[in-house]
Write a structure and sequence with these properties.
Elements lengths: L3 E5 L2 E5 L1 H18 L1 H8 L3 E6 L4 E6 L2 H22 L5 E6 L8 E3 L17 E4 L18 H11 L9 E4 L6 H15 L4 E6 H13 L3 H9 L3 E5 L8 H16 L3 E6 L11 H9 L1 E4 L5 H13 L8 H10 L4 H18 L5 H7 L1 H6 L6 H12 L13 H17 L4 H7 L5 H17 L1 H15 L1
Parallel strand pairs: 1-6, 4-5, 7-9, 8-11, 8-12, 9-10, 10-11
Antiparallel strand pairs: 1-2, 3-4
Helix pairs in contact: 1-2, 3-12, 4-5, 6-7, 10-11, 10-12, 15-16, 15-19, 16-18, 17-18, 18-19
Amino acid sequence: MNQAVGTVGAMHVTIDDPIELAWESIRSGLRRDCGARTFDNWLKPSRLAGFDEDEGLVQIALPSEFMANWVDTHYGERLLHAWRAHLPQVRRVTVSAGIDSVKPALFTVAPVIEPEQDDSVEPTGTVEGIQLEARYTFDSFVTGKANEVAYNAARTVAEGGALTFNPLFLHGGTGLGKTHLMHAIGHEYRRHVPKAKIVYMSAEKFMFEFVGALRAKDTHNFKQRLRSADLLMIDDVQFIAGKDSTQEEFFHTMNEIISAGKRLVITADRSPQDLEGIEARILSRLSWGLVADVNPADFELRLAIISRKLESMPQVSVSQEVQLFLAKRIASNVRELEGALNRVIAYAMLSNRPIDVAFVEETLTDVLRAHQRRITIDEIQRKVSDHFRIRQSEMTSARRAREVARPRQIAMYLAKQLTPRSLPEIGRRFGGRDHTTVIHAVKQIEKLRKADAEIDADVRLLLRQLEG
């Protein structure tokens, strides 16, 4: 029987044919489910790069970071389910770049530390919990006004020198870069302190492991493992809200780490002052260090992120016009912006079409619709009143004079077109009018736009101003 041998530390792990057979079966299933074109373009180049039986970890490699990101985003979950169906012991599947370095018959799970290795160059410490993603480094993090304080604070923690603050508390919404900074801190700290022990876990995992240790009456090992860390990073601390026993242990772990001069980095989706259900003494400790927010990226930063992303894909041609369009229209978070760019490039490659604004609008119809700015009826009334030089109060008045009634009808028409409000609700916002009045106004403006060029020009201008 053919065997492939991998290494875990100094131990050898033998991988029998069932692993390769499972992988071939999974690939066949993906080709059947996804179609030949998608499979040949994206999944066929994938290779099985490693299997760690103890960790339940399968490693998949692809030729480029772009392909790896795309497959991970679109098929990561499906790959995990497929592997679990064949091998229930699989708990995690990673997809990364680096296929050229993979030998087909060798499963490299972790590097063997040779005795003669220079410890001052190669890290010999440990990383427990969440494993560090190679792509999340400080070099790949794009900075701007929205995140420069958080970035500089993270670098200070990672460089291993004396700290004037501890802990570092990073907060911000989903997809803004907190996770990227956490991984970057881990990578950089390992470079500066090669023998360091790093523990990185979510607050949710902290809670589950602590509860498990309580039930097993083995809290000593749990405490020792975390408190012996040189760098402890806890993600999404808001998840321990309302968990009294977990918060008690979390507080003491924080104190031990800080008192011992170790480094502590914590993230949440909001500032300490806005966290609910967290004990006051924990919030006080969090605020005692440096609190740095990671804000939504502004237009310039979004444009820089797109540009940096495209630098790693020289084979892809995306015009400045398209880059500006994406940076303007997708403003919620960086993760969604990068996902939209990946989707556009992937669809263009699959359909062999040039990437222009029309193609982007077609490809991202659902994404762009979700990102449309929320326009309010009050905003419409104010804009229409200014345009026609009448008082905004006329929008809700009983006056029927033409110079007031026509702008009011246009405002009702725009409210129907640009807001999700119902006809009765729109009527109420225009002085308690009946929904039939709104229907009449909408039909009237639709008819006038076809017959009166001046009215149509007014409506077009207002639409541009409100949607822009």
